Amino acid sequence: MTAAYTEVTKAPAMDLLRFATAGSVDDGKSTLIGRLLLDSKSIFEDQLEAVERTSEDKGYDYTDLALLTDGLRSEREQGITIDVAYRYFATPRRKFIIADTPGHVQYTRNMVTGASTADLGLVLVDARQGLTEQSRRHAVILSLLRVPHLVLAVNKMDLVDYDESVYDAIRAEFSDFATKLTVPDLTVIPISALKGDNVVTRSDSMPWYQGTSLLHHLENVHVASDRDLVDTRVPVQYVVRPKSDEFHDYRGYAGQVAGGVLKPGDDVLVLPSGMTSKIAGIDLYDTEITEAFPPMSVTVRLEDDVDVSRGDMICRPKNAPTPSQDIDAMVCWMTNAPMRPRQKLAIKHTTRTARALVKEIDYRLDINTLHRDQETKELGLNEIGRVRLRTTAPLMCDPYEKNRTTGSFVLIDEATGHTVGAGMINASS
To answer: How do the domains of the chain map onto residue ranges?
Structure first.
């Protein structure tokens, strides 16, 4: 191992925040992200010059920062976001992964995909329009996905003369609506993405606002405690058996820690076999470590030579999920052909794959009104409903509200290999 490599491994890992943006068309999501990238100096000079040229060609008297994130040609031509655009930037305090999700109802599946791994949801509203049906729908989806932190950014405050009463009315209306949802942490910030007010630095134009800027909030929101550090869950991704003579006795089980804290000497249970052992050691790359926790990807070595393979789950003997073949879940359907009872699909849960039968559809959820349509016989594209499945092999799952990794799955069309649905488990039996 070189001295340079050793130095890198000793450096503390910078904290990471994943957040997803959502909002109605023209609320300014892409412009806001462009502003964050520009003011945090996370874009290259040639990128900025290209955007300035394009803005000038369109006859704008300002730099259209939305062009930094709307990457598809059809997005740039229509001025809307269609696909999920991922962007990365960093400040001295934290690294960020942004999922700029589309706002239109016909791209609900794209929003679900982009927000599924988010630590924070950022919903934009136009200060002139106030809350819209789409704003409420985005908040409902973020709540269903159990995104633990929600920020409502009241954008375009410059177009309402930075009127405090406009901000107060929108904040009160949204706060009242949020009481009907699962929103553990809500913050409301007035901004102007175009002018840069309260985006990276506090604005002098809104002295009545006593809170922090948006970037300061993103840098300081606490997300470490959002992960499940109690219930040990390690879905096995790969069995490590080096073929070198030097490591001929090595056998480890690699995977990403989905929950709990693991240490050498801990008693563990392997599901679905039910075999027990102790942790002999935990390896991170070529270094042995003293503990592992979410979302670290590690290799776990056991004291006993037990049968463990891809798709198995390492957990604690007195705190283990109950393997189940009957799954009750909320499903977002993502393809044109509807989901119907008796339909057969493949299901991918953590690292385990099985086949599943749609037993019944309990109801379709109207994500605008929260009405439950119990008369529905199918789920169409971009619709969300409560579904009961029967799988051919037991899944080691938890309720989604308890663990977003072991509580989620995707459904796959076996004929095409395409992902057709995403599920959030309510319960199993």
So the answer is: 12-226, 233-315, 324-428
